[in-house]
Amino acid sequence: MSLNQLIEKCKANDTKAQGELYTLFSSKLFSTCLKYSRNYAEAQDNLQDAFLTIFNKIEQYKYKGSFEGWLKRITVNTVLQRYRNEKVFDIINENITEDVEIEVDEEQISINFLLQIIQELPDRYRLVFNLYALDGYSHKDIADMLKITVGTSKSNLARARQILKQTIEQHNEKQNLQSL
């Protein structure tokens, strides 16, 4: 069955087709959820919520652009909506303007460690960091998505980078001490 046929069956509320769609895309969308969530369990909850939204809105998909891109956009928006509802973006006045560069030694730091420290960032920093650094959104797009100002987006990104840099430096120091 083609993807378009599968989509049409999902639009007709065919539960078998919905299961196939879930099987086909759940791992990719789970990695998106994991990126934006605080932990694995929350990512699982976010994935389920995203698929509920996908199945409720699949009628709106008009075969323009990538279906996978459409799924990802709904998934990201579903996760962001959860955080907007939790008021994680209440205004905190932080005037951080310096751009922090993060140097990562791939031999010392694993992808799992990076994912873990990104997940441990406070919500407002993690979401802005992921949207900007990992998914390539502009600060204006992020501000619109999260209902914050462009300045807040920039400030949150700078703070996220500072925290990540400090955490990586501490990790490297610890590794260096252990190797002595």
Automatic annotation (TrEMBL):
CDD domains reported in the protein's UniProt record: Sigma70_r4 (cd06171)
UniProt keyword terms in alphabetical order: Sigma factor, Transcription, Transcription regulation
Domain RNA polymerase sigma factor 70 region 4 type: 114-162
Residue intervals of the RNA polymerase sigma-70 region domain: 21-87
Record flagged with keyword Transcription regulation: yes
A Pfam family this chain is assigned to: Sigma70_r4_2
Superkingdom as given in the UniProt entry: Bacteria
GO terms under biological process: DNA-templated transcription initiation
UniProt GO MF annotations: DNA binding; sigma factor activity
Cited InterPro entries: RNA_pol_sigma-70-like, RNA_pol_sigma-70_dom, RNA_pol_sigma70_r2, RNA_pol_sigma70_r4_t2, RNA_pol_sigma_r2, RNA_pol_sigma_r3/r4-like, WH-like_DNA-bd_sf
Similarity comment: family membership: Belongs to the sigma-70 factor family. ECF subfamily.
Protein known as: RNA polymerase ECF-type sigma factor
Organism annotation: Jejuia pallidilutea
Lineage of producing organism: Bacteria, Pseudomonadati, Bacteroidota, Flavobacteriia, Flavobacteriales
